């Protein structure tokens, strides 16, 4: 039971990271390889606000998320939108976006190394025990999970209860058809990319409350987010959440029952099984 609950608490934070990439890839058609760097940058900013100004990471969300939204909107508008306009096929856009964001990965990583150094960083926030079904867990993990659920719930309401959210989902399904019914595809894609960056930053802020991080580990989170997105089905919000929970439980089980050093290997093993037996993802439809 303890392994299951710990895995779910971790998976809740993973879900925010994966939802960010789901929006960027599923709607804007941008495979953002700098996702992990956005997350790590949010970790460092949350740490800096807490250590320098005693700003709680929970309050820090109200600063970090809007900043990430604006930065990602600018990145899409000035760097990625020209690639979208010139791409003649979806495959060409995917290749160009991978190369462009691969460059951003090293740019952001270099800036973080310059600003914060390469040492591992952590800070103490709500480091207290919290009882769930007779077991004790870190209060910081529980609070991070609850905050992640609230943010994910707000995203669900936006996507499924607002007109603009419906437009975003329509672009995810078919940009050409969405354009025919009067939806501004370019604006919806820019919004989705910016919102995806903000969600990733929220995930990083919450993860920093109980996770040790450094400036070079963004690629690990990028791979995890990519694995979750593919496991859940590209562009499917429900699948991303469920896949994130599965991954969190799998990593926790391997760390506790086998060897903590094998968690990444377990992640890739799970990913391989999905590719072999369910390549369209958990909720994806088989292509015919």
TrEMBL record:
GO biological process: amino acid transport
GO CC annotation, single: plasma membrane
One Pfam family this sequence matches: BPD_transp_2
An annotated Gene Ontology molecular function: transmembrane transporter activity
The keyword tRNA processing appears for this protein: no
Cell compartments where the protein resides: Cell membrane
UniProt membrane topology term: Multi-pass membrane protein
UniProt keyword annotations, A-Z: Amino-acid transport, Cell membrane, Membrane, Transmembrane, Transmembrane helix, Transport
InterPro entries membership: ABC_transp_permease (IPR001851), BCAA_transport_permease (IPR052157)
PANTHER family recorded: AMINO ACID ABC TRANSPORTER PERMEASE PROTEIN (PTHR11795:SF445), BRANCHED-CHAIN AMINO ACID TRANSPORT SYSTEM PERMEASE PROTEIN LIVH (PTHR11795)
Entry's family note: Belongs to the binding-protein-dependent transport system permease family. LivHM subfamily.
Record's protein name: Branched-chain amino acid ABC transporter permease
Organism in which the protein naturally occurs: Pseudorhodoplanes sinuspersici
């Amino acid at each position: 039971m303890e392994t299951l609950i710990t895995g779910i608490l971790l998976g809740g934070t993973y879900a925010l990271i994966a939802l960010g990439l789901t929006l960027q890839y599923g709607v804007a058609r941008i495979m953002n390889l700098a996702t992990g760097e956005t997350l790590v940058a949010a970790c460092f900013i949350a740490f800096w606000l807490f250590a320098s100004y005693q700003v709680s990471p929970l309050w820090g969300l109200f600063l970090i998320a809007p900043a990430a939204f604006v930065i990602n909107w600018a990145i899409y508008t000035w760097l990625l939108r020209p690639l979208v306009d010139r791409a003649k096929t979806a495959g060409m856009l995917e290749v160009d976006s991978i190369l462009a964001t691969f460059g951003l990965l090293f740019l952001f990583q270099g800036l973080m190394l310059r600003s914060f150094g390469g040492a591992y960083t952590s800070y103490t926030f709500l480091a207290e025990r919290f009882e769930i079904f007779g077991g004790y867990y870190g209060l910081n993990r529980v609070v991070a999970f609850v905050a992640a659920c609230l943010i994910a719930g707000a995203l669900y309401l936006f996507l499924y209860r607002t007109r603009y959210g419906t437009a975003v989902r329509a672009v995810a399904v078919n940009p050409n058809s969405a354009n025919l019914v009067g939806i501004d595809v370019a604006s919806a894609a820019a919004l989705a990319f910016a919102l995806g960056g903000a969600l990733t930053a929220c995930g990083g802020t919450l993860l920093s409350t109980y996770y040790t991080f450094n400036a070079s580990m963004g690629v690990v989170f990028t791979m995890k987010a990519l694995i979750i997105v593919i496991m859940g089905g590209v562009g499917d919000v429900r699948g991303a959440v469920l896949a994130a929970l599965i991954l969190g439980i799998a990593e926790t089980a391997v760390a506790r029952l086998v060897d903590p050093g094998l968690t990444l290997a377990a992640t890739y093993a799970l990913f391989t099984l999905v590719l072999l037996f369910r390549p369209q993802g958990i909720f994806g439809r088989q292509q015919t």
